[in-house]
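User: Can you predict the 3D structure for this chain?
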Amino acid sequence: MTYWIKLLYDRNTYIIDLDRVGAFCHTPNGRISFSVMDGSTTIVVNQQSDPASYQAILDYIEKKTGLSII
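Assistant: Here is the predicted structure, written as structure tokens:
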């Protein structure tokens, strides 16, 4: 089963299969970043600008790994 999300980033709409993301980065200021399209684009999501996508990514990580990153 794949896990897709749709988000707006840098004036573009991305539909992303989170199962294909190799790694996520959670920074001390609360941002989550990850690379898409063979590493050529890095998406940065924060809770203030896109709370739904931010929470969906956190939920995905916890569901897949059993770990919380915050």
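The CA atoms of residues 57 and 63 lie 10 Å apart. The radius of gyration is 11 Å.
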